[in-house]
Amino acid sequence: MMDQVAAGVYQLRIKRFVNVYFVETGTPGEWVLFDTGLPGSDKEIIAAADKLFFPGTRPEAIILTHGHLDHMGSAKELAAHWNVPVIAHPLELPYVTAKALYPPSDPTVGGSLAFMSRFFPKQLPDLTDVVEALPLGEEHPPYLAQWRWLHVPGHAPGQLAFFREADRTLLGGDAFATTNHESIPAVLLGIPEISVAGSPFNYDWAQCRQSVQTLADLNPAAIGCGHGPVIKGPAAAAGLRKLADNYQLPAQGRYLAEPARTDASGVEHLPPKPVDKLPKQAAAIGAGLLLAGATWLLVGGRRKKPKHPKPAKSYASTRHAKPGHRPGA
């Protein structure tokens, strides 16, 4: 599904869950791709680009808002297909070059996404051969002189957002979401609602809240995020301001009292790992089912064998009996 965020900015929703963006540079025929979706999304993205621009088109570069798997999953394939670089904040490089792992997800924070996070892969594709560091000394991202980038950490160490001042268009990455991440129907149906994004992956809640406040101060007129539909008009700024002013922290979680700390090489410090009750509960349920199965087999094996009826007398034993004579009489 393709939607227009603003002039020269288009959102492609992949599998109703994750978004990528085609952003024109201002020069006819030139554009940049923001994020690459889940692994296996490359053909869908290429087909959308060919339809949006012209067959055989390619971007000037691929820019990642951050390196989580649902944002960089197809970067390696797309970079090879188009022969273009992938650009990310320097603090993301350890993770997208397989030198480090992100802070572990926190399934104890609660919610449907937290439950599923237990099963998400931790290792990412290695982009060493194609990735380049965003030039931090430049206010504008490469090829996009009308835009400026903002560092908005908390969800990922080098997470980026992008803002075009001319029409107040904001691409927020996963600093927040434009749908309720904790509602599976809302995500699948694309119901618009500015909300906290990616709770089980937020390793520093103070930074997450500050990042939302920074972006709310931009007073955006159009918003596109990593997850959720496009939101335009007064609802964009009002919804983001409401989230910033009433940012709800989770009631529990590993990173609530103490954040993870990261540096240029990866994770420097992690708070203690909380007790995750689900594996024990799952083990208990499994043991119970196993015990029930063993009991059923044991009891079933000891059941009394059904009594067989006595065999009927054969025809041979009766066919010679005299009329009126009962056999055995």
Describe the structure.
It is a single chain. Mean pLDDT is 88; it is low at 280-299 and 312-329. A hairpin with a 2-residue loop joins strand 1 (2-6) and strand 2. By secondary structure, the chain is α/β, with parallel strands linked by helices. The protein has a seven-stranded mixed β-sheet with strand order 1-2-3-4-5-6-7, with helices on one face. It has helices at residues 42-52, 69-72, 75-82, 93-96, 112-117, 184-189, 205-216, 234-245, 277-302, and strands at residues 2-6, 9-14, 18-24, 31-34, 62-63, 86-88, 131-133, 147-151, 160-164, 169-171, 222-224, 231-232, 261-263, 266-269. Helix 7 (205-216) packs antiparallel against helix 8 (234-245). It folds into two domains: 2-271, Metallo-beta-lactamase, Chain A (4-Layer Sandwich), CATH 3.60.15.10; 278-302.
Short recap of the structure:
The chain is of the alpha/beta class. The chain has nine helices and 14 strands.
Tags for this model:
five-stranded mixed β-sheet, 329 residues, 27% helix, alpha/beta, Metallo-beta-lactamase, Chain A, 2 domains, globular, disordered C terminus, seven-stranded mixed β-sheet
Report, as a whole number of angstroms, the end-to-end distance: 93 Å
Sequence stretches where pLDDT stays below 50 over 5 or more residues: 280-299, 312-329
Overall SS class = alpha/beta
Categorize the overall geometry. Answer: globular
* Spatial sequence of strands, sheet with the most strands: 1-2-3-4-5-6-7
Number of domains: 2
CATH architecture of the largest domain: 4-Layer Sandwich
Looking at this structure, what is the CATH superfamily of the largest domain?
Ribonuclease Z/Hydroxyacylglutathione hydrolase-like
